[in-house]
Amino acid sequence: MSKFLISIVGPTAIGKTALSIKLANHFNTEILSADSRQFFKEMSIGTAAPSQEELHSATHHFIHHKSIQDDYNVGAFEKEAILKLDELFKTNNVVIMIGGSGLYVDAVTKGLNDFPDVDNSIRDQLNTDLSTKGLSFLQEQLKTLDIQSYNSIAIDNPHRVIRALEICIGTGKPYSSFLNKDKIKRPFKTITIGLMADREIIYNRINQRVDLMMNEGLLEEAKNLYSYKSLNALNTVGYKELFNYFDGTWTLDFAISEIKKNTRRFAKRQLTWFRKDENIQWFDYETPVTQIILEINKKLIS
Q1: Tell me, what DSSP letter sits at residue 232?
Q2: Angstrom distance (rounded) from CA 156 to CA 229
Q3: Domains of the chain
Q4: With left for phi above 0 and alpha for psi between -120 and 50, is residue 28 left, alpha or beta?
């Protein structure tokens, strides 16, 4: 039998974790997380990582396996994830992957894009511009040089913006022009399931989740991480807003409202990314799992 990776994607707060556990239990298999925010063990509440009960319901990989102080990127994740899949496919015909980080999902299912080397001085200058002129300056620069990347990457993430800009500047070509070329062929087939809902429903679920996070102790979690706020891992929705509260720049109520707003924007970017993939089979978030399993089984035997 062929080996199949069932990849579950969709916007944040849509119910991917619950579905992944149900599918893992049905197929008696394990789960890989491709959520770049849930890799870090110090960040639990603010990343909506699976609860201890959920982690015990099915075996998970790449949840809280790194520290915020570790140097970890999508390239390292790709290598580790493929090695783990090779191991799991020795005893499983089906493995589940879940993630809202489109770049990390694609790294596993399609392989990373091959970018040319550029002079390190370009990145140094961009980091200087970030410090002196701010992220908005770099965002406008990217908008001018590569509007396609501006509209698709995580524009609030300085690391992603700088990476796109250094390719644009170093090659004289748009970052987006290097995407989707000569992707690696994987030794497994991918079935991608997307969960979807009306925008109002998604936004309401996000607002409710943020309120729940605050009730569960997000403020204290962020306070414990405040001294590490300069680390790239913590330039993340849910933490950076509360750091502004600790700085005395914002009130707590305003910081919480900004978390909700920025999470909604993040969900919009997720959907923009995933909607480009014509191979995703979309389901309403309330679709019974039995119906989703039925559709998956059709692909398993086709």
Answers
A1: G
A2: 15
A3: 4-113+181-301 (3.40.50.300), 120-178 (1.10.20.140)
A4: left
Report the predicted TM-score, pTM, of the whole model to 2 decimal places. 0.83
User: What is the spatial distance between Cα 250 and Cα 255, in angstroms, rounded to a whole number?
Assistant: 6
Q: Angle at Cα 205 formed by Cα 36 and Cα 22, nearest 5°?
A: 65
Using an 8 Å Cβ cutoff, are 33 and 298 in contact? no
What whole-number distance in Å separates Cα of residue 297 and Cα of residue 34?
23
Q: Which tokens in the block code for residue 260? A: 């909700």
d(CA 50, CA 56): 10
Q: What is the pLDDT along the chain (302 residues), one digit of tens a residue?
A: 699 999 999 999 999 999 999 999 999 999 999 999 999 999 999 999 999 999 999 999 999 999 999 988 888 999 999 999 999 999 999 999 999 889 899 999 988 877 888 898 998 999 999 989 999 999 999 999 999 999 888 788 888 899 999 999 999 999 988 876 666 789 999 999 999 999 999 999 999 999 999 999 999 999 999 999 999 899 899 999 999 999 999 999 999 999 999 999 999 989 988 998 999 999 999 999 999 999 999 999 87
What whole-number distance in Å separates Cα of residue 95 and Cα of residue 300? 12
**Which residues lie below 8 Å from residue 1, measured CB to CB, with a gap of 6+?**
93
Residue 157 to residues 69, 137, 164, 233, 262, Cα–Cα distance (Å) = 17, 13, 11, 10, 12
Q: Which among 254, 257, 226, 252 has a CA at the least distance from the CA of 239?
A: 226
User: Residue 149 corresponds to which amino acid?
Assistant: S
Name the token pair of 118: 């550029």
29 beta partners: none
Q: Using alpha carbons, select from 63, 65, 42 the residue that is nearest to residue 54.
A: 63
> Phi and psi dihedrals of 195, rounded to 5?
-105, 135
